[in-house]
Design a protein that fits this description.
By secondary structure, the chain is α+β, with helices and mostly antiparallel strands. Among the domains are: about 140 residues, no CATH class; about 40 residues, no CATH class. Helices cover about 40% and strands about 15% of the residues. It has a 4-stranded antiparallel sheet with strand order 1-8-9-10. A hairpin with a 4-residue loop joins strand 5 and strand 6. The longest helix is centred in the C-terminal third of the chain and has 30 residues.
Length: about 400
């Protein structure tokens, strides 16, 4: 992978190209992590949290994992509308780009990484692989680190390019999934940019709390002298005090010296409330119910836990799954074919509710028995009934012949 200097040297021979959004005005080459230059008008960035700092925050890291796992663990498939049946029908021969999108890893890992790209940086980028002769579209992709891709625009015609490792690629040469962006903007916004100030404040609060509990926020004690001491004497006295206390043995003070321990209360210092609020803030910015991050929530019964999980998929997870499916539908599938995630298993209610619902549908002739069994992942009833029986056209054996 080329360095930023390599990129600059290779692009030096291309006059007119500049880095930034379509409305930006900066001309120097900047990484995509510098969101102020790429997404909006140039402005001062708030004190941000880096990716490592943000993911090190337990509520944030856990929240990202919940969202990424929900998308990664849900299968997707190509479907086509059947006018005779009036429903979308899953293709028997699935495109290879869905079965194995990245040959270097598993489909689960690919969907996890693409979702994490969308959460953190608001964009997922991948180079196209070889064509799939069945679809006429790419049969696999090469995912790229979201923070190592640059975008450049030509002020003459407004065309934009992606700079990757010192090479320029047009939009038609790669898959770019923007997880939400304004009209006229190319790049989406991730939480690291959109909530930079809040995440930076959370990191600062956690650093302060760590220093507080480690004794760094306040001195452990005050040692008073009966006489006036010089700074050098005070430094020497503190050094000897640390040496004595490091052994955790009883300390004998000279006559006249007074030791006053400083006792503080984390609750009175509002650290508890502050950390709880920050965790709730992370749940809010990720769109995750607070109780999924171990925070206090409403009283949950089995029934409303099921409903809450359905709401979590509908309101939070699809925020990152839908852009990925839409991009694959538009750029990776032939016309008339759609990519859909199979949310049925994750959004299904409890078994008793499903059984009652299917019984009512079959009684009302809305579903056949076999269609209801298919919802439960079971084969048609005829298949079960014919198991261990003689196939049609084969004569039955008599008891003597069977022996």
């Amino acid at each position: 992978m080329a360095t930023r200097n390599d990129v600059g040297r290779r692009l030096a021979g291309r006059p007119g190209l500049r880095v930034g959004s379509l409305a930006g005005s900066r001309s120097s080459l900047r990484p995509r992590s510098d969101w102020a230059a790429l997404i909006g008008e140039p402005h001062e960035m708030p004190a941000p949290a880096t990716e490592a700092q943000a993911l090190a925050l337990p509520p944030f890291g856990r929240g990202v994992a919940l969202l990424a796992n929900a998308v990664a663990g849900t299968g997707w498939s190509a479907v086509r509308w059947d006018p005779a049946l009036g429903v979308d029908v899953r293709l028997v021969d699935q495109p290879s780009v869905l079965v194995d999108p990245d040959p270097m890893t598993t489909p689960w890992n690919y969907r996890w990484a693409a979702t994490e790209d969308g959460i953190l940086y608001g964009n997922h980028v991948a180079l196209f692989g070889d064509l799939d002769f069945r679809t006429g579209r790419p049969g696999w992709v090469i995912p790229l680190p979201a923070d190592q891709v640059w975008i450049m625009t030509d002020p003459e015609d407004g065309r934009y390019w992606f700079a990757i490792g010192g090479e320029l690629f047009g939009p038609e040469s790669l898959l770019h999934v923007a997880f939400g962006n304004r009209s006229g903007e190319v790049l989406g916004r991730g939480v690291l940019y959109q909530y930079a100030s809040s995440l930076g404040g959370f990191v600062a609060a956690e650093d302060h709390a760590a220093a507080y509990f480690n004794g760094g926020a306040l001195p452990p004690a005050v040692l008073s002298s009966p006489t006036v001491v010089q700074q050098s004497q005070a430094d020497d006295l503190k050094t000897k005090w640390r040496e004595m206390t490091s052994t955790r043995e009883p300390v004998i003070l000279p006559s006249g010296y007074v030791l006053t321990p400083i006792v503080s209360n984390a609750e009175q210092a509002q650290l508890t409330e502050s950390r709880t609020w920050n965790a709730s803030l992370v749940a809010m910015l990720l769109g995750i119910p607070p109780w999924k991050l171990g925070l206090e929530g409403p009283s949950m019964t089995y029934q409303n836990v099921e409903t809450a999980d359905i709401d979590f998929v509908r309101d939070s997870v699809t925020r990152y799954a839908d852009p990925l499916a839409a991009a694959y539908t538009k750029w990776m599938m032939p016309r008339g074919t759609q990519v859909k995630f199979d949310w049925l298993g994750r959004m299904r209610a409890d078994q008793s509710t499903v059984a009652s619902l299917l019984t009512g549908y079959t009684a009302a002739k809305i579903l056949s028995t076999d269609e209801a069994r298919a919802v439960l992942g079971r084969p048609p009833m005829d298949t079960v009934a014919l198991e261990n029986t003689t196939p049609a056209g084969v004569p039955e054996l008599t008891p003597s012949e069977a022996i």
